[in-house]
Design brief:
The structure is a homotetramer. With about 300 residues, chain A is an alpha+beta fold. Chain A contains 14 helices and nine strands. Chain A has a five-stranded antiparallel sheet. Chain A has a two-stranded antiparallel ribbon with strand order 1-9. The longest helix of chain A is centred in the middle third of the chain and has 16 residues, at about 130-145. Chain A starts with 5 loop residues before the first helix and ends in a 5-residue tail after the last helix. The interface of A and C includes residues 237, 247 and 252 of A. Chains A, B, C, D: Its EC number is 3.5.1.2.
Chain lengths: ~300, ~300, ~300, ~300
């Protein structure tokens, strides 16, 4: 049985932490740039309710791209997979997450998958509701249910900052709007998307969401099926094929745990049937993944044979 | 000396007109879709003031992409070529005029030339003035001077319609803004750009502008140097290397007259030292050029040996 | 426990077979074009030695791209993963398997993964030996061990035919040679590669190889570790992320079984810890995968919950 | 009348020479790497037989890409423009001269123009004759006629060296062969092409060829029409739109003289109706053009107003 003591975890964290120096904190908006490059924390949440952790686990950080997989789950529940996959593809791309070129060179201009920005914008566009506020609250309620924590909210400073600077995402939106893949007003979608990305939580919360995915959608506490098993399965598959930006292939080979990262330095992992993982380490490698977080997952995967493959 | 009688011109127009049937009128906005597919008119303006013409020469049409070369002239006058070419390149692309892919694959993300949409948006961005209104009036005044006709204005219906639907241009703008090539508010730039594209004139006016370029910037009537010879020369060069969208190379080989086309079906030609040409034929080929207009220019070029090469 | 009776399997085959009509047999070389579009056969090989099957299981077919994953296993054993991944990447591409464009646009020009042709050519290049003959025999011996059948050989007609027509693969090789990723003589490599692709076997053999991968490299009969567990794991990971050409993402979501297909219509599957699958159905979909074979795997995966995710 | 005295020319050469230091001699084969970075020579050939020159004009160098435009003229004479342009396009590309990506992304895979390597290989493929030897002799005879010098031949060392290392050109050939644009044996075509590129001459010869193009195909001495005016015109057009690699647009704007460069450092210019230019300056800029050669042409164009535009 994998790692059950915080002592073991502390040792691994100390080891993984060393490589944080060779990465770089995201600084495209001031709020992210303030993060401490040396931070590294982890929580592991087991089905029986036990949770072990290491590092500064109270610290909240914004989900950024991790929100893409949670939002996808919500939209799959609401709309069904057939409808969703008429609007976004299922293939990994090999390109950076913010790339626009394939939208032009492929026909039709459907984003290749929901984990690249173009695809994630389409998924967020599909959140049901009559207003940005209502749609955002639906996503937030879903996250409250997943984390069993109704205090979770978004960081206004980060959301505002991203809203003001996300011109590349606007370019993607207008391109998609030109091709009738997105229909709503772009500024409205940007407001919703930047709020979504700015949702804040700590590694304990994140590990709990990972656990729900690991348990095929079942709440570990109440036993309630929060999302259908198929939705959890689809999300975990995307986490393997394109969850770690254009380093997903390497991550699958070296680590083999369905995971989703964000540029704030968070990583959510779901070891099928076993446990959920939440990691925060803001120092990023050149592809935008937490450099110490990946190292830590590599140590865990090797030590406890966690690869699915 | 080339074609001096309207009779000759009428014969050529009748011949060229036949291929209008194999083209298609632009219909991405309703106002353009209303054009008559079979229309074909031409005016040739000589330095001595004489003008011969054929077809329905009173009909006004919007400049669309033809405005790109006029706007470039204005901005070159205002800013100097060094400054302008820090913001936009000088190379033909081989890609469609509205392509975004090269902005991503090339580094830096400077548009390759001012005749593709990305480059034209940068040039329009460089028009001096304190407001959209002031900047647009500067461009309009310049056109009044070039045509010696101060009644020329823009078509509100077309401008509004393009403003509402130009999502691809917005995508280009936001991409450029992300890379700090465009700084102003995108909606403001779009307002200015769509008004610029919606400026209306007839083939007589267009031929007169072509003549000013042909005469190295000199007004044929007053002898005034409206633009420096270098500016006229740069514009004519772009008209050869990238004036006819991604059919410019073929056009240079088959016809060899510096020309600029627009999706409304207009073509402006400048035969260096000799005369200016204005053409209107709204039926387009698949690359967006007036199909009968190109045929007519081919006949003219062959009959009167007008190729520069 | 999954499907244990041939009756069940026959029913599924009959159901899946229907969609063979909407596909097309590969015909770029005559030998492949002779295949019967309606064929569909399957063998499932269990660790205890039992094997169930349906369809014409004696029919031999060439491995084509399925050989890529077997060759990768051999080369990983011989050279170690560090060495191999200096020469070929680990990322899915989103492009067709024979694409050359990314070799030019990415820097360095290392093929993105070993399942696209460019990457597979690099892997074959890495097979140890002093001559094409010696290297090919090493690969064949490895396959004899995996299948426990030393009569397996290659089809000379197919190998010769592919050798004569594989100009696109030659283009890839020369491009890679220009960038010093491949060093040997291209014709020599082409001889080795086309022989490798022309290795023939039936679905029983293929299922047995799949089983060795499923059992982490252990021979089901002798218990011998034919390949290290890490090699089997790496291969299965690639089968998930890029085993089904640029339909791998969709296949992972809908079916979730590590699999590798070839344009002859073969598919090899490895259900981790459980069983190996061999399928032959030469009617292909537009991406080059067996159309009825995929349908059959989908039915199996749904009925017996075989997805890894 | 432009520059008639060698004194003027010597002054300009001395001035232009200074920038040779900031360039780099081609060194992809040893024979080219031996060139003297500081060399710069020019010859200007007038219709009346007069020729002025500066620098070491006796030095021979290989034509490299300059041969593309001469070969194009020969093939246009032999096959007619309709036939030729069924096999190669007329559009500039914006990509480097050795790029392969557009062959894949455009449909059909016809090279965009005859001045990029892919297109030049197609043109060389079209040289008539029953053997490489016979076809090469046809090209050589044509060059003897153009230069009025029957001693011109190719450099065996350079040809052999290029033949051995031209893997990228082989990649292009095989790609084109896969798409049935090239039919002959690739090694045979490579032999012919590398010999063509290795044809040697000095700047006096080169200026004389430029003059024939400038005079619409007429031999300045005998008055004989060596090539039809249309062929000369087409060649000059390509020299403007794509003669200077992917710096052609800038060159057209700044200099405006139809020109073709080669990586040996040669540039051939044709000032329509006026004179031919031959330049040799082996220090190259990053796009592969003679850095001092371009500077020299810029000085000439500005001083004597030589731009066509």
């Amino acid at each position: 049985m994998p790692c059950r003591s915080s002592d073991e975890l502390n040792t691994l964290v100390a080891k993984a932490k060393k490589c944080a120096k060779s990465g770089k904190v995201a600084d495209y908006i001031p709020a992210l740039g303030k993060a401490n490059q040396d931070d590294l924390s982890i929580a592991i949440h087991y089905p029986d309710g036990r949770c072990i952790s290491a590092g500064c686990i109270e610290k909240r950080f914004t989900l950024q791209s991790i929100s893409k997989v949670i939002c996808l789950a919500l939209v799959l529940i609401d709309r069904g997979s057939n409808y969703v996959f008429e609007h976004v593809g299922m293939e990994p791309t090999g390109d950076p997450f913010n790339s626009i070129a394939k939208l032009e060179t492929m026909s039709p201009s459907k984003p290749l998958n929901p984990m690249i920005n173009a695809g994630a914008l389409v998924v967020t566009h599909l959140i049901k509701g009559n207003s940005v506020e209502e749609r955002f609250q639906r996503l937030l309620s879903f996250i409250h249910e997943l984390t069993n924590d109704s205090t979770i909210n978004y960081c206004e400073e980060v959301a505002r900052s991203e809203f003001e600077t996300a011109h590349l995402n606007r370019a993607l939106c207008y391109f998609l709007k030109q091709h009738n893949i997105i229909e709503e007003d772009v500024e409205q979608l940007m407001e919703l998307y930047t709020k979504q990305c700015a949702i804040q939580m700590n590694v304990l919360d994140l590990a709990r969401i990972g656990l729900v995915f690991a348990l095929d959608g079942v709440d570990p506490l109440s036993g309630k099926q929060i999302m259908p098993p198929d939705v959890a399965r689809i999300c975990k598959t995307f986490m393997v094929t394109c969850g770690m930006y254009n380093a997903s292939g390497e991550f699958a080979i070296k680590i083999g745990i369905p995971s989703k990262s964000g540029v704030s330095g968070g990583i959510m992992g779901a070891v099928p049937g076993k446990f959920g993982i939440g990691i925060f380490g803001p120092s990023l490698d050149e592809k935008g993944n937490s450099i110490a977080g990946i190292k830590l997952l590599e140590l865990l995967s090797k030590n406890y044979k966690l690869s699915m493959f």
